[in-house]
């Protein structure tokens, strides 16, 4: 007796289909599992045997062999328990084999036969749909997450018994559904902080508005207590809303990391602010069972590194590659995993250990001390910030001023407008923000007239810019023009973008 069920395994952020074959034959009673299995999958044997017994299925003393194929993909995780149990029960004739061929099955078993939730259901269901499966059987607690994928029926089950009943009479069950429109309702902004609470700092606010509009990396540098952290924490209140496609991409990552909780989808742009004691693995991802790190959890959102020089230097240097490629590759003995990491980097720092450099009335650090402090941020990393902006100390008068500051809602309106322009311009190209433009697209979308070209050329020579800095200036100028609702990038836009590139010279330049 032979049967075949289907399941899937996570690889990076995608699902790969795995077939689960069970063969029952006469011979010494034995239960064997083969097919490049990780230890958790090998342990499935025991869980399945006991869970079947406790669900009332007594297996006759036969020789059972289960094979998971293709043999060259490593099978990890606990989601194979249920498909293995189903394949065995089918081989013994408890389930109609016909219903297995269009059905993808995932679920972990507990010893009493109940089905526990697993990570990664969203990408697995997504893969099933792409491979032409008609339905998925998933743990009940993951049903909403799976039901988000349209074009495939998803059924949540709570125990082996329920799975068997469902598989034998599938037509009389209703698949799970979720109302996606409802999920997005009210997700826009329910923060209790607002930009209007920050007094002054107009230049810094403007720079943040530009950065958020085009998802450009931004570095804020300035003395303690000037409002850097305060402003960064208010960034979520002005971020552009998520499109459904973006939401799916982010939710897949959260699903794999087991962070979807009971939400079916992530509907707000991520804002991650890991502490500076974070390890390299937690930041970029990896580990023995590879998992996405903070940079992937911040995909299509913000990664905020407060007090940048306090982070371990090697840890932040690792960001260089993902910052360019917008993805991270993790190599393992048997496979390489690739996780998306298209985040916007927001960082804040003091210019020296006392915090007041270059104000020599307050800063007592020696030149060497300042150099060493600033040196914690390498040139190549610095180069990856499109915008570098100073936070200036605000004075007492300013703090007392009763002048009304702009609210987050006011700023958000302009950000939304700039986003709309970008979406229309890049429709159908897989580009959402100006920061994603490739050098080829920069030539196409950031055309300059001769006056603007001259301006940029002068800056390039005078500031000794790298090719990367040159491209980044053009992208920022594109965003500034979009905020201005101008199709043409004018000299004004270019100058402002150059200005954001020149502040770092004041600190990292050749003053020393
Ligand atoms: N521009 C401002 N408007 C209103 N309050 C401010 C402003 N700047 C600072 N504050 C007040 O000072 C507190 C500290 O500011 P914040 O933590 O943002 O400073 P910081 O620039 O991050 O300093 P550090 O470099 O020490 O981290 C804020 O919580 C707020 O109460
Ligand atoms: Mg701070
Ligand atoms: Zn100092």
Overview of this protein structure:
- With about 500 residues, the protein is of the alpha/beta class.
- The chain has 2 domains: about 1-180, 2-Layer Sandwich (Ribosomal Protein S5, domain 2); about 195-510, 3-Layer(aba) Sandwich (Rossmann fold), CATH 3.40.50.300.
- About 40% of the residues lie in helices and about 15% in strands.
- It has helices at about 40-55, 80-90, 120-130, 145, 160-170, 180-185, 200-215, 230-235, 245-255, 280-285, 295, 315, 320-325, 365-375, 380-385, 395-400, 410-425, 440-445, 450-460, 465-485, 490-510, and strands spanning about 1-10, 15-25, 30-35, 65-70, 105, 110, 115, 135-140, 155, 220, 270, 285, 290, 300-305, 325-330, 335-340, 345-350, 385-390.
- Strand 8, helix 4 and strand 9 (about 155) form a beta-alpha-beta unit.
- The N and C termini lie far apart (about 80 Å).
- The relative contact order is 0.10.
- Bound molecules: adenosine-5'-triphosphate, magnesium ion and zinc ion.
- Zinc ion binds near residues 354 and 357.
Descriptive keywords:
binds magnesium ion, 18 strands, 512 residues, 21 helices, Ribosomal Protein S5, domain 2, alpha/beta, binds zinc ion, 39% helix, binds adenosine-5'-triphosphate, Rossmann fold
